[in-house]
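Quality-control log, excerpt.
Job 1 of 2 completed; input and output follow.
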Amino acid sequence: MRPLAALLLGVFLCTACAREDRGCVAAATPEAAAAGWKILEAGGNAADAAVAAAFALAVTEPAGSGLGGQSVAILMKPEHAPVVLDGSSFAPFGMPKLLDRDLVLNGRQAATVPSSVKTLHALWRDYGSGRVRWAECLAPAIAAAERGYRPHAFGSSAIASSREDLVRDSLAAAIFLNTAIVRQPLLAATLREIAEDPTSFYSGRIAREIARDMHVHGGWMTLDDLKRVSEPRVCQPLHLRYRDADIYTLPPPYGGWVVLEALNVLQHGGKRSEVHMDTLVRALFRAHRERQLHPMLGKPVSDMQKRLSARAAVNPAAVEEQGGETTHLSVTDSDGMMVGISQSVNYYFGCKVLHPTLGFFYNDYMREFQHADSTHPFALRPGALPYSSMSATIVAREGRPELVLGSPGSARIISAVVQVVHGIYDQRKGVGAAVAAPRFHVKPDSTVYFEDEVEAQEFNGRTFLPFRTVAPPADVIIAGRNPWFGGVHAVMNGENGSEGAADPRRDGAVEPAACWDR
């Protein structure tokens, strides 16, 4: 096809999408995006589609999420208040009351009590359209688990980087190593049982299988722990008026408040045209530093310098940034409803242990607690909620949701979300350009990691700030971008319909492809 013809076809497709806009799905694998879109085509709404995409990710991106992890959702309907479904996992009540502070948590002892199945069921039950059955939402995931999928570039790199750990689990090694197609028949059977009865995961046969496996292998999770998993907490998101838009994001124990801290510094730093690289670096530094000093703070305020100078408030046992991963999906439907789900098993493949008969990985969120200080907000104790950087965010104007986004990447989630919002609302970029733009990440110790070497050199050449630039980890480069800087999946509703963006740093996709803002 000639370039001009291809361009005209692209314009036609996007115009057609705008005229008959049935919504858009952006997710971390093509299979998950297709699963969500299939539900939208079947008459489901954004909540239905998000549930389908989330379960498909549990199959096709197991390094980032799964049945053994946690999920949190943010959603908003036009002219309605946004809500958060907080499905945080928690430390088992069956764990020892006293632990050696130097204890290294490995294997099943590293797992918090998983919440994803209950959170996703509540999202479908309470916010779904009523036109799509629960089993229909799980059908694409079941099919993908049975027939298998081919890992894409990022998924393959995650398997390769975890090889030494996966090989220790014979079932995980058989499924994920030395194979071109990943087939998961045990997981398919588990998903089929959940499709028939989601309560089985917490009080039925599946729950008993989990408890039995934990007991046999020295884990701390019990059947009583699983029965304790409540419905996800429905709460109001944190809110910040930014420029002429309303930004809503996740409350603690998640990282959304740090996103708002950074954006608040940005808008107090001058008009849109006056926000330059130095300003953005300072904003992210102050926000990440504030999080280190006050890990459970949750309200953005303008007088940040005063708080940062309050040396007496410094917590010497602040939780350090870990190497955790996660995944995020974003959906909108024909009515303008938006849903974002961030879900995780923490590190790649969680604790690297598959349940021997159920086929899913346990998370390793027990590593995200503070062990040394029992008074710390994130001290490890029975029932405690783990530290998380998840920052699923919705931006609205005049009561209508306009943008939904989120990212994986531990504390880099916060940096990524801030930079994409800044790119769209300050630099006037399209959602695709904002997601694809080079990024940087600032740590509380004044270290700055630049994805783009030219930007790093320019920053070094003009700044008088006390920052030092360091080359980021670069285990794999995809499409000229570094996955270490996250994987934003975003959907935006505009005058011409919905547009989606999948981060080129990862394996994600947008459905329908005609709504992909490149």
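Job 2 of 2 completed; input and output follow.
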Amino acid sequence: MPPVQHCIRVEVRVEGVVQGVGFRPYVHGLARRLGLSGRVGNDTAGVFMEIEGTQQLVSEFLATLPAQAPPLAVIEQVRTSPLVPTGEPGFHIVSSNAAGRPDTLVSADSATCADCLRELADPTDRRFDYPFINCTNCGPRFTIVRDVPYDRPFTTMAPFAMCPACASEYHDPCDRRFHAQPVCCPACGPRLRLLDANGVDLPGGPLATAAALLTGGAVLAVKGLGGFHVATLASHTAATALLRARKHREDKPFAVMVADLTAAHELCVIDPVGERVLTGRRRPVVLLPRRPDTPLAPAVAPGNRNLGVMLPYTPLHHLLLRDTAGPIVLTSGNVSDEPISYQDDDARQRLAGIADAFLTHDRAIHMRTDDSVVRVFRGAELPVRRARGYAPEPLTLAQPAPRPILGCGAELKSTFCLARGRHAFISHHIGDLENYETLRSFTEGITHFRRLFDVQPEVVVHDLHPEYLSTKYAHDLPDVELIGVQHHHAHIASCLADNGAAGPVIGVAFDGLGYGSDGTLWGGEFLLADLAGFQRLAHLVPVPMPGGTAAIRQPWRMAAAYLGSDAPEELAQRHAGRWDAVLAMAHRQVNAPLTSSAGRLFDAVAAVLGIRDTINYEGQAAVELEQRADLTEQGSYPAAVTKGPALQLHGADLVRAVVADLQAGVAPEVISTRFHHGVADAIIRVCVMLRDSTGVGVAALSGGVFQNVLLLERTVAGLEQSGFRVLTHSRVPPNDGGISLGQVAVAGALLRAGSRASRGTGNRQ
């Protein structure tokens, strides 16, 4: 006779991204399948459940729970504790408990799933052609959440009362839309509208008329998940040129949305990794090699060898692409340098001079979120802009933050980061903190994250630059401890945190500009660093920036600073009216601060080659220099390294080698490659020298310059061949978008160490 199986009851708590992803119905179905009794619900900490049954079945439940979780779920921890069995039959989903401190995680917005797409295309389905179709496995999340727990009353779907059919699905544990908070249909959900520039409804079906407008060459504003985009037909020469003129966006490439992967292959060369990123649930813009025969208008991505491509991520996008039958430009709906518009009235005012019509709807967006942008490097994502599809899902810190921390980030490509315990909540991309609208978006975002994740910062971290608006914001906060972290130390710390490492490393921080701990402008740095501090062991030889910030906008000034009277005659003649004055400014160092910036070195070379004398967006000269490179070329330019209190890498050697080849008739494409190789080889040489003196064999590469995949590949390969372990970015951008995470990581290390001596710079010089 088999032994009697006694019942046990356990409490189970699951933490992570487990709300709004179909976790409760998954638990309900699993428990019912195994014949277990109990209950499951949401609270401010995640998902709680009580499971009762035999030891064998409860053990099977606990083993299966994480292994077969819903696709959008991210389980961080499962905790169990014994309870007294009650003998109550059945398994139930109970009402959410909003009491207590919010400690749950919020899912990012997710692309429309295959099941919903099948319904969208099925003429017999009640949601046929409905542009807001969603379920527990897809749809809006972060952009509609007002508070936690993630239930409909706390989202912007609250005004839409469910019809009986939707309510039946919502309450049916066997339905795919069971407790899907944005569930809706044509009878009860949001509705599409097409308005003219004056806010008047246009006749006809909104979708069909919008598609006809696009096909006819109109510029259309489209309300997406996180804000408005402006769109044109990507093959329409006049329309794309008109959009560029109206946005005052002279050169920066536009992103293109295509209907499916087949259409993407017609435009770009895509490897399996690129396919995976394009078709994943996050749906970022992916920068891919462009095919030379793409049927796109010249104004889409002028002079650019890459193309930013994305696939539809909302049902509205799928329908619009179907009806236009061609790729569309889909770029942020904003005025130049301002954040993306996300509120209807504001969008109609700010985009009135850009869009001919507005395809909008009545589901409010609570938090504006721009599209994410990534490159592909060595089989993984290299983030350029982390936003929709990624935020607000946190990174897990290797060591918990001892106290709640706010990292205010830098100024360009602004993000903020809130840390509590092991979670670092990095914000979506905010933009450049150079105007009131962006600053307001920054402060509103911090307020929302503080409430959503119940983080009340006790420690606030800022950049050392006294004029950054993020620094001023930090200093205006009452009753907090302030920690200033040097810009390039934050870059290396962000790379360490991205990789779950603590250091020490030889950190190579190459970017445009950052305020050095000595008050000068850094940007080509080699640091012996861990999270708590750093030593500046090497750097590019500083050169003047004639005219200060004018030298950023006009790269030819940096060519003058590097070459002086040795500049090619053609370059000097192009700027004959100002050349001598700029040379004198650089020589006398009047209004010409010294900088070790790697970004300014790339600017100088771009100007020498005639690629870019004046920029229209940040980093343009370096981007176009990379685009011109001949990828078959193997040559490299040498650069001297001299010893002193710190090693100094002579960037001027590289610039002079560029001039010599140019005057010898070598093609600019070949010169560009040799320059890139020369920079990489110099980095490797300096790192080897520093390893010999420090014994540290791990290198970390960070800073906006390392968005350059040509440079990054050569550098990583050479360092690995030299025996280094190399850390690069895969979860946060190497540019200033990762600074806030680095600031938090540094502050956490200082707090754990109880160190006050290093606070203010993190510098151990």
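Post-run check on job 2. The chain has 23 helices and 28 strands.
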